[in-house]
Specification:
Chains A, B: It holds the Pfam family Rhodanese. Two copies of one chain form a homodimer. Chain A is an alpha/beta fold. Chain A contains eleven helices and eight strands. The structure holds a DNA duplex (30 and 30 nucleotides).
DNA sequence: ACACTATTCCACAGAAGATTGGAGAATGAT
DNA sequence: ATCATTCTCCAATCTTCTGTGGAATAGTGT
C-alpha cells in the first residue's frame, strides 16, 4: 500500500508553509502585514517590488493560507491570516539570528550603530512612574491599526518638525515595528543629536502583540495570538 | 546609500531558514533528527531517499545551521542544532494544520482511522494512579536517546511478540515520535485487535520535549528547549 | 457605455533547486 | 600498503521559482 506515498504527501503539505517562508521578499511582506492590513500597491512600494511581482508573492502567501484578503472598492487589502502566522514569522527570525552568524552582521549593516534600548517591562515601568513619554514612529496608518496604549503617533518623517511638541523634561522612548525595524533606531539618533534623552524599545509592535500586551486601536484587531503561542516573559 | 540593499540582505538572511524548511524531505529529516542523532545512511533509508540526495538535503540544513554533525569513525552523525529548531519545526506543522485544510486529509490518509488518545497531563495522571503502563513503540535507538520516565521500550515490530509480557490488568498507553507519527496509531490498533485496553498519547516525544517535561536517557540530551519557547500547558 | 484605477493572469527568460551516477576523501580493518 | 565502508563533491539533467512586461478582469465615477 501507499504508506510511503501518504507520508510524503503529508510532509509536502507541511512544506507548503515552509515554501511560503522561503523568500526574503515574502518575509518582508509578512513583516509589513504584521503591522496591519495593506493594499497590494502599498505593499509593493513598501517592499520595493514591481506591482506584478508583489501580487505574485502575495498569491503565494495566499495559497499557503498565511494571508487573507478583503476587497474595498477597487482596492484589495491583504492581512495576516492569524496570530500563529505572526508567531511563526517571529520564530523564523529568532532562529535565523540564533543560528546564522551573518544575521548579526546584516542587521547591524541595516540598522546602523546600536542605540540604547529598554525592554517592554522597563518601558511599562518608566511610563507608570511618569518618567517617560512613548512615541510611535511608524507611519500613521500603522499607528491607527494598533499601538501601545498612551503612545503618541510621531511618524519618523515628521519627527524633526514635531520636536518642539515633545516634553523636554521626560525621557522619550521610541518604538516601531519590531526587532529589525530601522525607524526607532533613527528616531533615537535624531533625538539625541538634538540633545534629548531618548531610548528605544528593544523590539516593537510585533513582539508587543505576541506577548499579548494591551493594544489600543481605532478599528479592529490586526491579529490575535493563540494563548499557546504567546511570548513568555 | 544602500539602505534598501541592506534591508534586502537582512531579509534574505532570514529567508535562509525559510528555504531550509521548504522541502517535505527536509522536514522529514528534521522529524527524524528530533528523536536523536542519526547517520546519513540511516536517515536516507528512514526517509526513503537516495544516499546522495539525503546527503545533499542534509548539507542544505547544515548550511542553514539547523543541524550539526559529529564524526565517529567512518560514520557521520547528524543532530538538531538546538531546541529552537525543534520548536520551529513543530510550529510549521501546527500552522500548516491550522491553515491548510489539506493537511487534515493527508494526515488521516497516512495515520489511518482515528484512535483514542490521551493528553500528556492525563498520561501522567494515569501512570501516577497506577492505572496505566506506558510503552514506547519507536525503534530502540530512539528510546535510548531519550524517553518518558518509566516507559518500556516495545518497538512496534516486536509488539506482537511481546504481547504476553504486557500487564493484562492495566490500560496500555502507547506513544511514538510526535503528532504525525504512525507508530502509536498502529500499536493501539494491534493491541485492541488482541483485546487489550489501549490508547495512545495524543502527540509524542517531540512535544514532550518541547513542553520541557522530564526525559530519561542513557546518553546525552538530544536538545534543550530555551525557556521562552517551551510549550504552555 | 466610457474612461479610469487596482489587481490578477499569462507568457517568457534567467536563476535557483532537486535528483542521480560516478569520482574522490576520510577512516578503519586486514 | 591495500581494501572496504561511509560520506561528500561534482557534473548533467530536469523541474521549479522569480521578475517583468503586456493583456485581461473587476469595480468606480461620469
Amino acid at each position: 500500500m501507499g504508506a510511503r506515498l501518504a507520508k510524503t504527501a503529508l510532509f509536502d503539505q507541511f512544506a507548503r508553509v515552509g515554501k511560503a517562508l522561503a523568500s526574503g521578499k515574502r518575509l518582508e511582506l509578512l513583516d509589513l502585514l504584521a503591522q496591519g492590513e495593506r493594499t497590494v500597491d502599498a505593499l509593493s512600494r513598501a517592499a520595493d517590488l514591481g506591482l506584478t511581482t508583489a501580487s505574485a508573492h502575495l498569491q503565494t502567501l495566499k495559497q499557503a493560507n498565511l494571508v487573507e484578503t478583503r476587497r474595498d472598492g477597487t482596492k484589495i487589502y491583504y492581512r495576516l491570516a492569524g496570530g500563529d502566522v505572526a508567531a511563526l514569522y517571529a520564530l523564523v527570525r529568532t532562529v535565523a539570528h540564533e543560528r546564522l552568524p551573518d544575521v548579526g552582521a546584516a542587521a547591524t549593516a541595516y540598522l546602523g550603530p546600536e542605540t540604547e534600548s529598554v525592554t517592554r517591562d522597563e518601558l511599562l515601568r518608566r511610563v507608570e512612574a511618569g518618567r517617560a513619554a512613548v512615541i510611535d514612529v511608524r507611519p500613521a496608518e500603522e499607528f491607527a491599526a494598533g499601538h501601545i496604549p498612551g503612545a503618541r503617533s510621531v511618524p519618523l518623517d515628521d519627527l524633526a518638525d514635531l520636536l518642539a511638541d515633545l516634553p523636554a523634561d521626560q525621557e522619550i522612548v521610541a518604538y516601531c515595528r519590531g526587532a529589525y525595524c530601522v525607524l526607532a533606531h533613527e528616531a533615537v539618533r535624531l533625538l539625541r543629536a538634538r540633545g534629548r534623552q531618548a531610548v528605544r524599545l528593544a523590539d516593537g509592535m510585533l513582539e508587543w502583540r505576541l506577548a499579548a500586551l494591551p493594544v489600543e486601536t481605532a478599528d479592529q484587531a490586526v491579529f490575535d495570538v493563540p494563548s499557546a503561542l504567546r511570548t513568555r516573559t
